[in-house]
Amino acid sequence: MLFIASTAQAVPGGKLMTVQKGPWTCEIPGDANTLAVEKPELGFEAIADSSYVAPDGTTGSYLRLADRLTLTSGVFAGRRFVMDGEEILRELAADDKPLGLRCVHAGPIRIATPG
């Protein structure tokens, strides 16, 4: 029997990842002249198994591929974000244009420790 080695193909859309667990608070950012406007009704808590808890207590799931996050079920199904580092999400419209809302990880920061 002849076996041919092949290279594993990358997942379309990028590497499968998760977001930091804990609360994510959402707001419309301010600037030098305007205060940020909090949007607590749009925040959520990231929990285990690529899931989240909405402010009303219901759960849903999400999919993160590289720097793109999509809430795939629950009350926020269909919301899409681009990651700005590991601590900030910026919400996107269906055409990938920014909607002006950002969500910031409000829990403790994970610090990488040597092996």
Show the helix and strand layout.
Layout: E1 16-17, E2 22-28, E3 37-38, E4 44-47, E5 51-53, E6 59-65, E7 68-71, E8 80-83, E9 88-92, E10 98-105
Antiparallel strand pairs: 1-6, 2-3, 2-4, 2-10, 4-5, 5-6, 6-7, 7-8, 8-9, 9-10
Instruction: Kindly report the spatial arrangement of strands forming the biggest sheet.
Output: 2-4-5-6-7-8-9-10
Q: Report the sheet-strand fraction.
A: 35-45%
From the N-terminal CA to the C-terminal CA, the straight-line distance is 40 Å
Q: What's the gyration radius in Å?
A: 17 Å
Q: Roughly what is the average pLDDT, rounded to an integer?
A: 88
- The outline comes out as globular
Low-pLDDT stretches are: 1-9
If classified by CATH, what would the architecture be?
Beta Barrel
Count of individual helical segments: 0
DSSP E strands, number: 10
How much helical structure, as a percent, in the residues? under 10%
Structural class: mainly beta
**CATH secondary-structure class:** Mainly Beta
Total domains = 1
CATH T-level fold name: Lipocalin
Largest sheet: 8 strands, antiparallel, barrel
Helix-strand sequence: EEEEEEEEEE
